[in-house]
Amino acid sequence: MWYRARIYCLLASLMVISAQVGAEEALVAGGEVARASFTTRIANREPTDRVLVLNPPATEVYFFTDLRNLEGHTVTHRWEYQGRAVSNVPFVVGGNRWRVFSKKVFPPDSFGEWSVTVLDDNGLPLYVELFRYEPVDAGRANLQKDLSEGEDIPAQDMPSTAGDSSE
């Protein structure tokens, strides 16, 4: 029986050493996400803007990633909604500098926190970014709530957020 315990300890040690070597290989390769962002459009393989909060009527968003030193590896965009994975989009990296993007079309009423995690070949995270998909008037409702917490200000007395003021 003692020899079984010894074999298990030896196997466990080998697994730890193997994991450490794999992690060191990933670090030695120097692969990284140089830039990443959510955007409403891609032009010439570059994002045209940066999205932190998206509102309808927009129903889609892109996630752009500029990868460095990952040639020959597979990188995955894992899309998550409210902390739950909803899709995986793999890319085979074809050069030392490789730009990729994936797109998500939002189902109706999928308001809340969205994120993309960029994963390496081993499923380890290289980068994470979040944004919020919110109804059009969610920002105004939050502003009214924040301001009214300090003072008792009725919602109709809130300053206008659009248009000209004659005051």
UniProtKB/TrEMBL annotation:
<dbReference type="Pfam" id="PF11141">
    <property type="entry name" value="DUF2914"/>
</dbReference>
<feature type="compositionally biased region" description="Polar residues">
    <location>
        <begin position="158"/>
        <end position="167"/>
    </location>
</feature>
<protein>
    <submittedName>
        <fullName>DUF2914 family protein</fullName>
    </submittedName>
</protein>
<feature type="signal peptide">
    <location>
        <begin position="1"/>
        <end position="23"/>
    </location>
</feature>
<keyword id="KW-0732">Signal</keyword>
<feature type="region of interest" description="Disordered">
    <location>
        <begin position="144"/>
        <end position="167"/>
    </location>
</feature>
<dbReference type="InterPro" id="IPR022606">
    <property type="entry name" value="DUF2914"/>
</dbReference>
<feature type="domain" description="DUF2914">
    <location>
        <begin position="74"/>
        <end position="132"/>
    </location>
</feature>
